[in-house]
Design goal:
The complex is a heterodimer of chains A (about 425) and B (about 625). Chain A is mainly α and about 425 residues long. Chain A has 18 helices and three strands. Chain B is of the alpha+beta class. In chain B, strands 2, 3, 4, 5, 10, 18 and 19 form a seven-stranded mixed beta sheet that branches. A five-stranded antiparallel beta sheet of chain B has the order 12-11-23-22-21, with helices on both faces. Chain B has a three-stranded antiparallel beta sheet with strand order 1-8-9. The chains are: A mainly alpha (about 425), B alpha+beta (about 625).
């Protein structure tokens, strides 16, 4: 065991560099999105860029604080933090302030806090703690169930706010469980069902069922010498057929109109650029109009003149696309991708299960946010309102992601003492 | 495979998918760039001031006023209280919906006109409220403002360019106003100016945020050139006053220049009717009035057999051809008799009369003989007819004036071909066409042709093509068509005796009741037979005799005979033009108050009765 007291020598500076690069780029783009020629003071706290600047400054102190706190605290306090977090999610349903149709916020003085942004790291801590206290065999149903409860309890509490986007993020933890031994079948089945889900929305359920039946017959024909396959084929086909019917029913009866519309537009079944598809359409216009090298900083017209909704929060990527073009957009994607690789690399080098699980959770959550957010702005996913990590305007999300990341960086720097 | 590799696979896959998608929408596809421009760039037209129209004495006749069209971009409209909005605009509630859906069907994102031509006062009130109604914005328009109620037909009006017109003239766009008639039409090119364009950046609420690309694509509007017409608006007004309640025309020309002094067509209309929001309603009312035909410019378009005034031309041709001399006499026995042909005459002489007397007495017999003489001078009627026809046409009759008025008629001056076609080569001779001698028969002239013919007589043999504009901007017109004299085929030496005859018409002839004590006027009465009803009253005149300043032609439809209406009106007009006032109040009063509407009613009833009869006779 090597003794090293200087935490700042052990900490992963590449991650910190990436973190600050993204945060500052984000701030620059928030400034551009809100920018108007009349008000030119950078430190104008009535404007979003001014407020965000305050949040960024506070995150520096927050980060330093997290790094200075003893590394063992996080494991020790994982469950209490999780408990407090779940209580805050419960509390926000009861006492929260409703803003634009969702009861997701506590308002304290001039600031509002979104508990669901903080529940992510709490859940990551709890999951790490659960998997690390003793060896858990994730092929066993009992352990699977416990892990799923830890993951999906916050999601269940967030859904009624309603904030389906934030709830969906918790699906990212399945990837973490996979790393820790969960059968890949879960992921495979998950993907298959997702594809089947989309297909059953696009194609008439009857035709789809017939097509699947023919596929089953072909597979049976190829494998007809191995008798034991027959039953499997029949069972899988039966499950698929039932799923198709369920989806059809769920989609038409259980989903709200706006969600149904968003999905329909994404699938190309409905086209209404002035109505519900307006957001996606304007977002793609903004990004597409950026061209190869962009219109230049502060020169974007689509974002500046409010054509893109939520341009400083969920649709912040539009500003990047419009003003920095293909070059800037791909640079941003590259930075994030490098960041994800780095996080997985760091997670893999952890000596303790707790830190590794936590690290993978960080990578998975950030990756999930990144994927859904950008896919939404370029018309590859329905409009799901979740922020782009470090980039989007919003104190709660910036603090949430900072805490999430820096606890892991602390654990990583502290990994020698964790043995 | 290690489990972390699945993560790597996802990271790379998502990165590649995103990069590919971005490449597709940012680099390959152009439609987003276009949509982005459509989003933020609003093209605003700045209409230039249309050139002003002045009269010959520098009095402003047609000016400009601004009005505002309320434009709409349907996609941006958020109309909550339709009723309040409708009340604000002063239109019914359903109309708001109709207009919106019409605009939407044109384009949901491009601006189109919602309400046309709001007045300035209405606009000022509306402007205060307009910010409550996103999607609507005003666009300034230049409308005409008439400083006179006279001369509506000759000044013309402007209106929105038709789709066909825009197709044929790429310089115009939907919503542009163009000259439709009169000077507005023929001088459209110079009056129009150049429309400017401003490209403005707008935000999602259609609020202007600044100019696009610092205005490098903007163009300034260029106002049109002012036009000085040849009209004397006072004379025009006076002519219209004299012609009220009568149908017909007064065309006056300055013989020394060919400038049209007045072009009265009666009945006319108030030009202000065709400006503003009521325009289309008023226009269809005027357009559909098939009885009064106020939009029909009789001075340019009506064709009449000229009647007796044409005798002057035959006298000149006879002199030129040498078939008569000033001393040639004929004796009239109540008309011209040849075989079974009789042309009645009411000159009442019965003794041998000379050329000069024949004009003042308007003897039909004399001119039948003159005409017969001209035709029969040549071996064949064809040759004779063609010689005659050529002389007549040299007065610019039977063909278009080809001038700066947008409309006109050829009239009809027959030649040998014409009769060969209709009657066969051997089917006619001089006496067959003898009516031409007294200005009847197939002959048709427009009033402006008659006025020009009179000017040519006043000038003793030449004329300038009558035109309506003398100055464009500050430059006098240079078109040789208008500035070079055109000579008739008659030597100027022949005009003296004819003019003396025309002087006698006022002095002691058919128009002696219209004589003026101090102005030497020359004229010729006409009573044009009208196959559709009562005769037309016609008169041509010029004055003063030796230094003609004005040549004039008057037609009063169904006005019985020349001296009854046309001659006094001509006399008053000339007096007014030459002295600036009128000292014959009784005659003036009689003319102004003269009302032929009962006569027109009668004509209409007759026409209607004939129609009914014709229908009844059909099996």
């Amino acid at each position: 065991m090597r003794e090293n007291t200087n935490i700042f020598q052990n900490i992963d500076w590449l991650s910190i560099l990436l973190f600050f690069t993204l945060v500052l780029m984000g701030w620059g783009n928030i400034y551009a999105a809100v920018f108007n020629a009349e008000s030119n003071s950078i430190i104008d706290f009535s404007e979003r860029y001014g407020k965000q600047l305050l949040w960024i400054i506070t995150t520096v102190f927050l980060a330093i604080l997290i790094i200075l706190i003893d590394g063992s605290v996080y494991s020790t306090l994982a469950y209490p933090i999780y408990l407090v977090s779940m209580l805050s999610l419960l509390g926000v349903l009861l006492f929260g302030k409703e803003i634009s149709g969702a009861r997701s916020w506590f308002v304290l003085g001039g600031f509002s806090i979104q508990p669901s942004e903080f529940a992510k790291f709490a859940t990551a801590l709890a999951l790490g703690r659960f998997l690390s206290t003793k060896p858990r065999d994730l092929t066993r149903f009992k352990n699977q169930l416990s892990a799923f409860i830890i993951i999906f309890l916050p999601a269940l509490l967030i859904i009624p706010q309603p904030d389906p986007g934030s709830a969906l993020v918790y699906a990212a933890f399945i990837l973490v469980l996979y790393r820790e031994g969960l059968s890949p079948a879960y992921i495979f089945i998950g993907f298959s069902l997702a594809i089947l889900f989309i297909l059953s929305l696009l194609i008439d359920p009857l035709y789809l069922t017939v097509a699947l039946a023919m596929l089953a017959l072909i597979i049976w024909f190829i494998t007809r010498h191995a008798k034991r396959f027959i039953w499997r084929i029949i069972i899988i086909f039966g499950i698929c057929a039932a799923f198709i019917q369920t989806v059809d029913y769920t989609f038409n009866n259980l989903l709200e109109d706006r969600h149904r519309n968003r999905i329909n537009i994404l699938l190309g079944k409905a086209d209404d650029p002035q109505g519900i598809g307006y957001n996606t359409n304007q977002s793609m216009i903004a990004i597409g109009s950026g061209g190869f090298s962009g219109k230049g900083y502060l020169q974007g017209t689509q974002t500046k003149f409010d054509f893109v909704p939520e341009q400083s929060t969920d649709f912040i990527f539009c500003t990047v696309g419009e003003e920095w073009g293909f070059l800037g957009s791909t640079l941003l994607i590259l930075l994030f991708t490098i960041f994800f690789f780095r996080l997985v690399f760091l997670a893999e080098r952890q000596k303790s299960t707790f830190a590794r699980v936590y690290g993978y959770s960080v990578a998975a959550i950030l990756f999930f946010h990144f994927t859904i957010n950008i896919a939404m702005t370029i018309g590859l996913a329905p409009v799901i309102g979740i922020p782009l990590p470090f980039f989007s305007y919003g104190g709660s999300s910036l603090w949430g992601f900072t805490i999430l990341l820096f606890i892991f960086l602390k654990l990583d720097a502290y990994r020698w003492q964790m043995l | 495979m290690q489990r972390k590799h699945l993560f790597y696979f996802f990271f790379i896959a998502v990165g590649l998918v995103f990069t590919g998608r971005l490449f597709h929408i940012q680099v390959i596809k152009d439609e987003y760039k276009l949509s982005a421009r459509n989003n933020v760039v609003r093209q605003e037209k700045i209409y230039p001031g249309r050139g002003l129209i002045y009269d010959r004495n520098g009095r402003l006749l047609v000016g400009n006023q601004s009005a505002y069209d309320l434009m709409v971009v349907p996609a941006n409209v958020q109309l909550e209280d339709t009723l309040a909005f409708a009340q604000l605009l002063g239109i019914p509630k359903e109309s708001v919906h109709n207009r919106l859906s019409r605009a939407k069907s044109y384009s949901p994102v491009k601006p189109s006109i919602f309400v046309k031509q709001l007045s300035r006062s209405h606009y000022a009130y509306l402007q205060e409220q307009l910010h409550n109604y996103p999607g609507f914005f005003p666009q300034k328009r230049i409308l005409r403002e008439y400083r006179t109620k006279a001369g509506a037909n000759v000044l013309g009006f402007i209106g929105e360019a038709s789709p066909q017109f825009i197709k044929a003239n790429p310089g115009y766009a939907k919503g542009d106003l163009i000259g439709k008639t009169g000077i507005e039409k023929s001088y459209e090119e110079v009056l129009r100016g150049k429309t400017g364009t401003e490209f403005k950046l707008v935000d999602v609420h259609n609020r202007v945020k600044g100019s696009f690309a610092d205005g490098v694509y903007d163009t300034l509007p260029q106002p049109g050139y002012d036009v000085h017409s040849t009209l004397d608006i006072e004379l025009q007004k006076y002519g219209e006053a004299l012609m009220q309640n009568k149908r017909g025309s007064v065309v006056a020309i300055e013989p020394a220049t060919g400038e049209i002094l007045c072009l009265v067509s009666s009945p006319s209309y108030n030009p202000e009717l065709l400006v503003g929001r009521e325009r289309s309603k008023n226009y269809s009312k005027l357009y559909l009035d098939s009885i009064e035909k106020p939009l029909f410019d009789r001075g340019l378009l009506a064709e009449y057999p000229p009647g007796s005034p044409f005798k002057v031309i035959n006298a000149l041709i006879g002199l030129q051809e040498g078939t008569i001399t000033p001393n040639t006499t004929y004796t009239c026995h109540h008309g011209f008799h040849y075989g079974r042909l009789h042309v009645a005459c009411h000159c009442g002489t019965g003794y041998p009369i000379s050329l000069r007397t024949s004009i003042s007495k308007s003897c039909n017999n004399y001119y039948c003989n003159v005409f017969k003489g001209i035709i029969e001078k040549y071996p064949s009627s064809q040759e004779g007819m063609n010689v005659w026809s050529r002389h007549v046409k040299s007065f610019n009759l039977g063909r278009f004036l080809n001038n700066d008025l947008p409309t006109g008629r050829r009239g009809l001056v027959p030649d040998a071909d014409y009769y060969d076609r209709n009657l066969g080569y051997t089917g006619w001779k001089a006496v067959t066409t003898i009516s031409l001698g007294i200005g009847q028969g197939e002959l048709l002239l427009t009033p402006i042709q008659m006025a020009n013919m009179t000017a040519a007589i006043a000038n003793r043999g030449f004329y300038y093509t009558p035109h309506i504009v003398k100055k464009i901007g500050s430059e006098p017109i240079e078109d040789p068509n208008f500035t070079q004299p055109k000579y008739t085929t008659i030597d100027s030496s022949h005009f003296g005796v004819v003019i003396e005859g025309m002087f006698d018409v006022f002095d002691k002839g058919t128009a002696r009741w219209s004589k003026h004590d101090s102005i030497e006027m020359c004229g010729k009465t006409g009573t044009a037979e009208n196959p559709h009803g009562q005769d037309h009253s016609i008169f041509i005149a010029f004055a003063p005799k030796d230094d003609p300043k004005i040549a004039i032609a008057i037609t009063v439809e169904n006005g019985y005979w020349g001296s009854r209406w046309a001659a006094p009106i001509a006399s008053l007009m000339m007096e007014r033009y030459l002295t600036g006032e009128v000292d014959r109040p009784a005659m003036e009063k009689r003319m102004m108050e003269g009302d032929l509407s009962e006569e027109y009613q009668k004509q209409l009833q007759k026409l209607y009765a004939n129609q009914l009869m014709a229908e009844a006779q059909e099996p």
